[in-house]
User: Fold this.
Amino acid sequence: MSEVDRATPSAPHIAGPLPSPANGIAIRLVTYLPVLIGPMAYLAPMGLTPLLALLALAVIAGSWHGARFVERGTGRSFMRAGLVVWPLLIIGLLSATWSISPAVSLGKTGQLAGLIVMGALLVPAIAVTLPIDRTRLLSATMIGFLVAAILVLADLVFGGGLSAWARPVPEGTLAASYSRGAATHAIFALPLFLGLWRHGRRRLALVSLVAALMPFGLEQASAQLALLVAIMTAVAVFAVPVLRWLLLGAQLAFVLAMPLALPYDYTEHLCPLIESKASIVHRVVIWNFAHERWSERPIAGWGLATTRHVPGGDGYADFMTPCGREIAVLPDGRPNLPQVLPLHTHNAAVQIWLELGIFGALALTWLIVVLSRRGYARARDRASVAAVASLSAAFFVVAVVSFGAWQSWWWAAMMLAAGVTSAALHASGGRPSADAR
Assistant:
């Protein structure tokens, strides 16, 4: 056991039988499997969910001593971690009773429950209960993202020739097809850098920071914005740790004030926005329409995961004609226009207000508060406080401008990032220092 493990009061000595060979193999899997996070995120993001499942099974195997699973601490940590998200799940489950698509709401609730169980197993195990080498875990994760970044750069140079055998030809540009990997990389970047730095792997930390610039070479504005915000947040919170509470307050205000901020009148700036980035206009159209439908069911919403079933959402959003743009016609006769409300709202706060109403918004704020407090409670110095704050900031930016709130791969990415960050926080034992408060 390292000096850090002996100094950390949250990781007491675990009495009982010595680990079996199977326990040892499982612990090694938890340590080294994160090397696959980066390649999976860029090349096969849907694979992040089975990767999370495999790591959760390894946690169970690594913690299991007959009936001693709960006694060893993993079971208790699992139950405590899971309780954070149960309010949101319970509201989602209850929403099936008033949902416009009850089967969809029930199915998604079950899917989210499974993901939360896996995350609630993994994160506390990495943070406290498993005797893993956290420095190697961080190094493996960093190497995985570095290899993925090199492969993506090579694929871009060769016009997609390297990845053609593994995935279908992307519908948009090749760079845009790596958007999920870029977003995942953005949320891992600062915790990985700060964790490796705190563990004494400073050369690897600097290399990880260079590799983290990959999102800037891809067509994923939300990943670029998330990385910029994460860097600025880390610097600000490292300098003035109390600013982490300002970040938390801003996130809560954003969620709770969302219905007051919409609808937004974009007509005055329509044509310049279309010239610069038409997707911004489409997002505003989506948010305005979602607000209109939310106002019809403001208390409980339309039901979990029912965005694609909301009446009127399959209409077309024509914001091109007012600016003199000609609308192309697809081979099947449909206009080449985006839907008013596609599969999701590209904003988790808007989606939760739409689907779960004020009940869901309150559950989301509870989740943000509790997770933030627990993360900061484990932070032992300025660097670890900055790591938690940067992760929170990057999560939030991607969540409110990009993907759907309930996408499985995104939840898996968040769980894996939380696990890696918990390894980063483990580096300095003892009680929080005065400058981290």
